[in-house]
Automatic annotation (TrEMBL), chain B:
Keywords: Transcription, Transcription regulation. It holds the Pfam family zf-HC2. InterPro entries: Anti_sigma_zinc_sf (IPR041916), Znf_put (IPR027383). Residues 6-39 form the Putative zinc-finger domain. This is Anti-sigma factor.
Amino acid sequence: MTVDLAGLLAGDEDAFRDLVRAHQATMMRLALLHVRSVADAEEVVQETWLAVLQGIDGFEGRASLRTWICRILLNIARRRAGQESRSVPMSGLPGADGGPTVDPDRFISAGPNAGHWSVPPRRWGRQPEDLLLAGELRELLGDAVRQLSPGQREVITMRDVEGWTSTEVCELMEISEGHQRVLLHRARARVRQTVEAYLERQSSPAT
Amino acid sequence: MHELTCAQMVESITDYLEGALPPDELESFRAHLLSCDGCDAYLDQMRSTVRLLRAAPGHRLPVAVESAIVRTFREWNGTRADQ
Ligand SMILES: [Zn+2]
């Protein structure tokens, strides 16, 4: 990435275009976590590149270039989202902020086996992957991520969709490893629950 | 070794997958997993969830937007050259 940056500073337009292309998918995805429309996300990406260019001399190379760019984008997207919907309260879903991430009714509540599964999870096998091709599950997954808290949404997207390391995500969000894990845990548990509920509906039709 | 309930297992699963469990807890976690099909299935489901997320579709930046960004670069480059 240092090569790209050097090219950039030398005014190499092709190098810059490569950089824009290399990061477009991640930037759009990250923007869409906070703004509603694709057009708004495109504006956020545009605004980000302007801010990147204006601030390029301040890039010290302590974080990776992509982390630095995405942090700028995140600030712009968050600010925009804040202006749009300050009054919308955060989801009061179970397990959103604290408490168990699996419905306590799934466990035996008393006796020698307390805390063990009463309704154990079943094995999914290849079923979700096969259903993913049909598209409905794909949409459902997107909705599930959008319904998470902003922090959970950012962590699960960067870790599991984009495949960033926990170190990078901590740098991006300026949070600790421990906090990152808590957000990831709650987010994954929530999405798992959505998939499970969907698969149950699939196997028990017409109810 | 400390025995874990399934309810505790599900809350440790991300720490396990992240390699963040301290050695003694890791030992308890693994021991439980070997003897509990429900928790093993839950772990499978979590891994499956991550795989599903990885397949999420993305949006491409339209050519017009990319061109606008490159124009911004050209202007920025021009003002830098002037200085
Ligand atoms: Zn168990």
